[in-house]
Specification:
Elements: H1 4-35, E1 43-47, E2 50-54, H2 62-73, H3 75-78, E3 91-95, E4 101-106, H4 109-116, H5 120-129, E5 131-135
Parallel strand pairs: 2-3
Antiparallel strand pairs: 1-2, 3-4, 4-5
Helix pairs in contact: 2-5
Length: 136
């Protein structure tokens, strides 16, 4: 025989967990809008473990990628964003306006924290060593 109280408790916990995740995603989305404002992205999308930034560039280059990651996406980590910022993100896709060409940076909050402690001459090497090309 099933216990209706236990079933309701599980459903309640799942709903609370979903709401917390939705609030964290909303906070991350808002912080990303502010942090990426200088690049005026066409779209910012959080899907599962991937953050996708669709830029207004017709052709993506690493000259756009590096500052967008280091002083854009990662900046809130250095300026006191809560631990929920970028939590669960494993990849950051930075794509052209068509979403067909660009780069995928393998990392999220922990990698942003590493970026914050790197000297400038190691920053480019670090970002590019964790990045692969993306084409559709």
């Amino acid at each position: 025989m099933r216990n209706p109280v236990a079933g309701n408790l599980i459903i309640g916990l799942l709903l609370v967990g979903w709401q917390i995740a939705a609030v964290a995603d909303s906070d991350t989305q808002e912080r990303l809008q502010v942090a990426l404002d200088p690049w005026d992205p066409h779209e910012i999308r959080l899907t599962g473990n991937q953050l996708t930034v669709i830029t207004r560039e017709r052709r993506m280059t690493d000259q756009v990628l590096r500052p967008l990651i280091s002083t854009g996406v990662c900046m809130p980590v250095f300026t006191g964003a809560p631990d929920s910022y970028l939590s669960g993100i494993d990849e950051i896709a930075v794509l052209n306006i068509h979403g067909r060409q660009g780069y995928i940076f393998s990392g999220g909050r922990p990698e942003c924290q590493e970026i914050g402690g790197l000297p400038m001459n190691d920053l480019e090497k670090y970002i590019l060593s964790r990045t692969r090309m993306h084409t559709n």
